[in-house]
Each structure stands twice: as structure tokens, then as C-alpha cells.
Amino acid sequence: MQKKYIISCIYMLLCSTLIAAESLTSPDGNLKLLFSLSKQGEPVYELFYKSKVVIKPSKLGIEIKNDKGLMNDFSLMDTKRTTFDETWTPVWGEENQIRNHYNELAVTLEQITNSRYITIRFRLFNDGLGFRYEFPQQKNLNYFIIQEEHSQFAMADDHKAFWIPGNYDTQEYEYTECRLSEIRETMKKAITHTPNSCFSPTGVQTSIQMKSKDGLYINLHEAALVDYSCMHLNLDDRNLIFESWLTPDAIGNKGYMQTPCNSPWRTVIVSDDARNILASRLTLNLNEPCAYKDVSWIKPVKYIGIWWEMISGYKRWAYTWDFPSVKLGSTDYSKAKASPSHAANNKNTKYYIDFAAKHGFDQVLVEGWNEGWEDWHNKSKDYVFDFTTPYPDFNVQELQAYAKSKGIRLMMHHETSSSVRNYERHMDKAYQFMADNGYNTVKSGYVGSIIPRGEYHYGQWMNNHYLYAVKKAADYKIMVNAHEAVRPTGLCRTYPNLLANESARGTEYEAFQGNTPSHTTILPFTRLIGGPMDYTPGIFDTKISFVSKKRGWVHTTLAKQLALYVTMYSPLQMAADLPKNYDLYMDAFQFIKDVAVDWDESRYLEAEPGNYLTIARKEKGKENWFVGGITDENSRISSFQLNFLKPGKQYVATLYHDGKDADYDTMPTSYEIKKGIVTNKTKITVKLARSGGFALSLTEATDQDKKIKKWK
Ligand code: NOJ
Ligand code: CA
């Protein structure tokens, strides 16, 4: 303890030698930023919220390979202050209008000895801070290689944190909830997923959500990750200082830069109310406006798919077991025996199309439709798939015609197996094939180690690939849902055909080791800060009873699965279970059919990361509202007033809630449905089971509906 005190005294002393202080306040005056240079000419910033310290004096700088670096020896050359206030309209979103309001301070810093300069730009919003490094073109700063970025985030106390281990290739971890000082001892347990490594004993990924002892919610992430490597954070757990740690490339370099260029924004979202973290639009606001003139082809999607059958282990992606290995082009599938476990066949696809049409879905995803699945994984195989050659039992043209006649589209699946070189090689033909055959959405995937070998999923090279794929898809009017790609950083504002990503542990893990009941109460505070997630909810047969040798089961009640359509925001939502399981619970399935995927307005009614959340959203262009509430392993009572409804109007409320004996382990499918007439004065009180939830739909009452009883 004493040692810790001495260290922090030395630190304070160091910081008290700061010179040339500049300050900036947020438009509402709640946030205050101080910027200064230390005696050594190092850039230093501090952040306060309502006078509480959010970030203690923290250094900024970039270490450059074979160069003195952009770390110190700076003097202040220029400062510029501006204010910005505009409201913009997203193509899709949690609301139809977003206010982008901030005060800005741009400090230009000169390194006199090297005759070069950089700018650090700070933007202070009411909900937090964004800052980035800018490298203008100049004689003495043209090409450079980043060795490391040294952006510090010094925490004021030993906060509680919700975090996943730092890894360059996967984000598919459970979250760990512990104090910052406990990260080191918890790391081993936290590595719940292979590859079993973390870049440091105290390395974590962003977005990380924290809570201070006096109730401040602090979130660290990045925005507009373009042509740069993804930032992790390494914690100095003696001094509680996070520092940026970029993803390296195959030879250990962390970024190839040519001026003029800039880093992504580093973000600190802060509030004393957890609900404001969810309501923050800071990440989107720090991204550039939409890059496309015509966005009429970009539409939210509700879909089902031939997917859970394979993920659960019931069926397979592969067509045959006849080949010892596959070489695309020379392996003759027409001579192979079709396996009865191949799910992506004509008959099954038509069955899904019929179900989708009957229940008002937009699309049907089909995985395992193309040659190569017999031999794709863990082989570091370059030429795996060509993305255009279907298996003999999958007739693209016939199925497309069938789907079209029923008002349904098929959704394309491109598993790249992380042979990215192969994907780029085939990309134009693959997207042209989609356009020719009526597909407008692709689910892509990056399972396994990257080829070119040695590159990581979150390095600069791969980040450029993910964006290249999104832009290229736009040329063909294709929307993208990329799995295993780098975590989102709000780029969907600029490129709204990036409908969703996975980039976290999704429902698929329920079929493997399972997800903890608190997982979905944390994701909106972490992974979703950067953008929508294709979480694939809607599993009704939570015990996966149709599979004999189960690996996992779904750790929620059925009612909680319904709530996720509201609490896990995404313009791309899957009803992931098998149609036959929906047939068993048609009355509950009605909620999935009714719930919207695009919104005019969102209200965050109750929220505590790791514990619970309740969110209400108004359907875009309609008077309907949908509310979802979830809880962790503890049951709870949720209580809220419908004060967001139009005053003086009557609505039909349909509440899908956990039954009296519901429990995620012992009685997950116990649910009840209650109907009644409500107004904006009505108070809803509902009990959630352990890992339970509720879903509520509210539609304007017609004259006929007025016969329905008043809500009690
Ligand atoms: C992992 C994805 O997350 C999953 O959705 C997909 O089915 C498999 N990869 C196969 O591509
Ligand atoms: Ca995955």
C-alpha cells in the first residue's frame, strides 16, 4: 500500500511540472479536458466529469521504427478551437435523427529538433471524449512505420471492469467482471476460447466498460478504424494506467503510414447513469458521413436460415464423406455420394423458404451450399472455396426462382476460411454471381488463421481487407454481415451496407460451451458500442433436444430469447432456431414476427452492466413500440411507466413473460402471454426468472380492439 502511495506521489510530482495548459469543456459543461506539455515536451491530457476525475494526467505519443519518435520534445505551435452542432439522418439505426454536438480543440505540436509537427485533435461531446493523432504531409514526416502507439488512459481508482482478454485473432470470449487490480490473477480463467494466449498478463480488448466506486460509468474504445491496426489496451496494474497496444503484422510492425494520415479516434464515453452509455452516439458521430449517394438499396433484414442445424451438431455443411481431400476444380462432386446429413439441399431450402414466406421474413441464409466444405478448416489451405460453385443438390437458379415467387431472397454465405488472398482473388466474380442470382446480402466469415500467413485478424492489413470487401460489395449493391472480422468502430455510418458484424461471442457458443446468463447484459455496453451485432437470438428449444450428443445448451428462458430482439440492437436479426421448434410455440413466435428491425426512437429504461437492462423502441414510420427486458442469473422485478406512448391514445399491449415456474435451467420454456389496453399512464410490473426476460409489443388500438380489457 505504502509503495503504491509513493509511486502515485512521484507521478503527481511529475505531472505538476506540466506547462502550457489548455482547457476545453463539453457543450453542457459537464466534461472538462485539460491539455498540457510536460517538461520533456510530452503531450498530456486529463478528463473530468462533473468535477470527478475520469482520466488522470495521461501521456500521448507515437513510437516510430528506427526514429526518435513522436513522443516528446514537443512545443506548442498552434491551438484551434471550434464548435460543431448538426443533426444527421442515419440510413437505419436506433433512432432516425442523431445530434452531433461537440467542442473541439486541435493542438499542433512541433518537434523543433526534427523540424516536423503533428496535430492532436480533441472533441468533447456531452457524452464523452474523442481524440486522434493527425500527421500532415511535410518534408520531414512522409513515410513511417509505427512501432507502438502510447496513448495512456490513467484511471482514478481501482474500478470494476467488464473485459475480455487481449488477443489479435479472436473476440469470442466470455466477459470477466472484476476490479482492475484483479485482471492479472483472473486472466487465465478469462481465456475461455482458443487461441489460448493474451499479448500480456494484463492485456484487454476494447470496448471495455468500467464502473467507479462512486458510480461513474467509463467506457474506452475507438472510432473510425481505417487503414490502421486495431487498438488493445495494456494495463499497468500498479498505477492503474491503460496504454494502447496495437495489433502487429507478421513481422511485428504495427502500422505503415504515409502522410497526410491520421489515427482512429480514441474514445472515452462517460456518465453517472448507465443508461446514457447505451444512448451515446459518440462512436457514430466520430465517423465520416455516408459515403454513398444512393442508399435506396440498403434495407434492414429479418431472416431465418439453414444454420443452427449445423452449429448444434445435428446436420453438416459438407455434402459428402467420399473424398480424402478436396481440390476445387479437379474434385468431381457429381460422382460422390450425397450424405444425408447435408442440410443445404433443395428440399430443405424450399422448406425454409416456405416457412419464411408464411411468417413474413425477408431472407433465408443457406450455409454449406458451395463446394469445399469437406476440407476447409485448420489446413492453412490457400485455394479453399470459389464462392460460385454450388453442390450438386443445391440448384441456385431454381431456388432463387422459387424464393422470388414467394417474396423471399436467399442470403449468400461466404466462409473465407481466412484465406483472404483467395477471397480477394474471387471477390468480383463472387459478388457478380450474387447480383446475377438475386442475392443482396452476404454473411462472410473468417474462421482460422489468416493467409497471408502470420497476419492477424485485427492488424492493419486485415482491417483494410474488411473495408475493401464492404466497399466492393457496395459496387454490386450488396449488404454485408461479416463474422470474425475486427470489432466495429462505427464505420456503418459511412458505409451503411455494413449491416452487422459478429466480432464477439454469439449464440453459436451456447451450442458449444454455453454463454453465461449475464453475457447479453454486458454486450450492449461493450461490443455494441462500435456497431450492430448479428447475435442470432430466438432459440426456443433451449436444451437443443433434437440433438442426441449435445455439447451445450442455451442459458436463458424462452422469454429472454424474445427480449434480445430489442436489447441487442441490430438492423439484421435472425430467428435462429429450426422452423419445427417455432411450430411448437407459435403464440410466442408472434413476437419475433411482429418486432421491428429499424427504429425512430429508443428509450433506455433500466440498465446496469452485468445485471439487467430494459429498452423501449419505436418502430420506424409506425406508432408501434417494442420493449425488451433481460436479467442475469438473478431473477428480478422490472417496473416502468409507458410514458413514451402518445398522450391520450390507447394501445394494445401484449406481454410475453416468464411463467411462474420459469427458470433458465429447470423450466426455460415456461412463459405466459398477457394482453390489455394501456395508455401512457400505465405502469408495467413484470417478474423476470433467473436468466429470464420479457418482451412487450404495443400497437395503437383500433375500434375493434377497444373490446379488450384494460391492463391490470
Ligand atoms: C463461424 C460463424 O460465426 C458461424 O456463424 C458460421 O456458421 C461458421 N463460422 C461457418 O462459417
Ligand atoms: Ca464466430
Percent strand: 25-35%
CATH architecture of the domain at 23-286: Distorted Sandwich
Q: Give the CA-based shape.
A: globular
Give the ligands present: 1-deoxynojirimycin, calcium ion
The helix fraction, in percent, is 10-25%
Query: What is the fold named in CATH at topology level of the domain at 23-286?
Result: Beta-galactosidase, Chain A, domain 5
- Helices, by number, come to 14
Taking Cα atoms only, what radius of gyration do you get, to the nearest Å?
26 Å
Quaternary state reads: single chain
Largest sheet: 10 strands, antiparallel
Low-confidence stretches: 1-16
Would you report the number of β strands? 36
Distance between the termini: 57 Å
CATH class of the domain at 23-286: Mainly Beta
Q: Which whole number gives the mean pLDDT?
A: 96
Structural class of the helix and strand makeup? Answer: alpha+beta
